[in-house]
Write a structure and sequence with these properties.
The complex is a heterodimer of chains A (120) and B (110). Chain A is mostly beta strands. In chain A, 0% of the residues lie in helices and 48% in strands. Chain A contains no helices and eleven strands. In chain A, the strands form two sheets. In chain A, strands 2, 4, 5, 6, 9, 10 and 11 form a seven-stranded mixed β-sheet that branches. In chain A, strands 1-3-8-7 form a four-stranded antiparallel β-sheet, with no helix packed on it. In chain B, a hairpin with a 6-residue loop joins β3 and β4. Chain B has 110 residues and is mainly beta. In chain B, strands 1, 3, 4, 7, 8 and 9 form a six-stranded mixed β-sheet that branches. Chain B has a three-stranded antiparallel β-sheet with strand order 2-6-5, with no helix packed on it. The chains are: A mainly beta (120), B mainly beta (110). Chains A and B meet through β5 and β10 of A and β3, β7 and β8 of B.
Chain lengths: 120, 110
């Protein structure tokens, strides 16, 4: 079955960087777009970014554009989120999600999430 | 882009039907058939209930159904059960490979 396991979360000071990873298994990773979605404590879901199956397309929410970079390594079945210039409002659980072959398709499968806390 | 509009709360008694609305615009819900619904329990990851407006993944009970009219999508839960008490989120494609979510609806089973 589809498994998505996030890692790399933790506590980081404002202005610093952090990289999340997501190890995927149970499906053909290289044939699916992948998204990151986050959820601040006690708040709703917020879409963060998407990367197409072949890395030709990336798109970001305005709130993270220019600071976050989504990438993938299909040879390692791994998705990444490089988060730079972190702000307190970036504090959230970050979910790795699998979309479809088409990058327009919405998230279908979700990992359990990685907590990122931005605090001095 | 603002979040899709969902009622903050909804409720029903066991066995009843409840419908949760998700209102957007012609540039998101009304413009694409990429609308999904998710169920989330406290402390857990969201789970997909409905995708592409009306489609149900395998394993999701047929008590859950989706529809869309104009700029509003709806999730109907029929034969409400105690285990359906959760937070429900809608989402929509908004073009340029971007996605938007609703603010969530807390469903209470009375």
């Amino acid at each position: 079955q589809v498994q998505l396991v996030e890692s790399g979360g933790g506590v980081v000071q404002p202005g610093r960087s952090l990289r999340l990873s997501c190890a995927a298994s149970g499906f053909t990773f290289g044939k699916n777009a992948m998204h990151w979605v986050r959820q601040a404590p006690g708040k709703g879901l917020e879409w963060v970014a998407v990367v197409s199956f072949d890395r030709s397309i990336t798109s970001y929410a305005d709130s993270v554009k220019g600071r976050f970079i989504i990438s993938r390594d299909n040879s390692k079945n791994t998705l990444y989120l490089q988060m730079n210039s972190l702000r307190p409002e970036d504090t959230a659980v970050y979910y790795c999600t699998r979309g479809g072959y088409d990058s327009s398709e919405l998230p279908k499968y979700w990992g359990q999430g990685a907590l990122v806390t931005v605090s001095s | 882009q603002s979040a899709l509009t969902q009622p903050p709360s909804a409720s029903g008694s066991p066995g009843q039907s409840v419908t949760i609305s998700c209102t957007g615009t012609s540039t998101d819900v009304g413009g694409y058939n990429y609308v999904s619904w998710y169920q989330q329990f406290p402390g857990e990851a969201p789970k997909l209930l409905i995708y592409e407006v009306t489609k149900r993944p395998s394993g999701v009970p047929d008590r859950f159904s989706g529809s869309k009219s104009g700029n509003t999508a709806s999730l109907t839960v029929s034969g409400l059960q105690a285990e359906d008490e959760a937070e429900y989120y809608c989402s929509s494609y908004v073009g340029r490979y971007s996605v938007i979510f609703g603010r969530g609806t807390k469903l209470t089973v009375l």
